[in-house]
Amino acid sequence: MKKVVVSFLGHDGPGVVHAVSSLLTGLDCNINEVSQTILHSEFAAIVIAEMPDGCTIDLLQEALVKGLAERQIDLSVTARLYDGRSWSAENPQSFVVTADGPDQKGLVAAISGILGEYNVNIANLKAIVPEDQPDGYALIVFEVIVPGSVELSTLRAALNAKAEELSLRVSVQHRDIFEAVHRVQPV
């Protein structure tokens, strides 16, 4: 079996995950891994699955599009072969970078640009601009993988310089420390 990566994007609602997963199962695909989220009313998922011999990417995508349309599920679908390549680094460590302050265009681009300059890979990203905040407050949380070759003090200095330029507060914490500090304790 060949591995395939399939992404789904569109309107969320009850039954969307079932539609996606049952269509893949009905096509004799075995789901290996899924990452799914909802932003406002938009559904997004990335699935890595094993595709049966004899099936092509074009046939798979065509069948998924047709199956979703028949179920009246409004999702776009993109499928491609999974090549197994991934970013890697020597002695990587996981950190959490948070930036918060006044909302303005380009915040994600500015912070991710610094991370990219230092060959830091972003594993997860959440940007939140609460609508109930009249002053336009933004919070951005990056879960990142930092290569062992990166000098943390230099990375922190670059992030702090960019944060000061944008009137943001920035924090860089080892993931273990971040999780320990932010763990919800039972009452």
Provide structural commentary.
Helix content is 30%, strand content 38%. It contains 5 helices and 8 strands; from the N terminus they run E-H-E-E-H-E-E-H-E-E-H-E-H. A 4-stranded antiparallel sheet has the order 2-3-1-4, with helices on one face. Strand 6 (121-128) and strand 7 form a beta hairpin. Helix 1 crosses helix 2.
Counting DSSP H or I runs of 4 or more residues, the number of helices is 5
Give the total of beta strands.
Answer: 8
Task: Output mean pLDDT.
Answer: 91
Order of helical and strand elements: EHEEHEEHEEHEH
Unreliable residue stretches: none
How does the helix and strand content classify structurally? alpha+beta
Approximate helicity band: 25-40%
Using the alpha-carbon principal axes, give the shape: globular
Q: What percent of residues are in strands? A: 35-45%
Query: In what order do the strands lie side by side in the largest sheet?
Result: 2-3-1-4
Report the sheet with the most strands, covering strand number, pairing sense and barrel closure. Answer: 4 strands, antiparallel
Please state the CA-atom Rg, rounded to the nearest Å: 20 Å
First-last Cα distance: 49 Å
Topology:
Blueprint: E1 2-11, H1 16-26, E2 30-39, E3 42-51, H2 57-70, E4 75-81, E5 93-102, H3 107-117, E6 121-128, E7 137-146, H4 152-165, E8 169-174, H5 175-181
Antiparallel strand pairs: 1-3, 1-4, 2-3, 5-7, 5-8, 6-7
Give a nutshell description of this structure:
The chain has 187 residues and is an alpha+beta fold. The protein has helices spanning 16-26, 57-70, 107-117, 152-165, 175-181; strands at residues 2-11, 30-39, 42-51, 75-81, 93-102, 121-128, 137-146, 169-174.
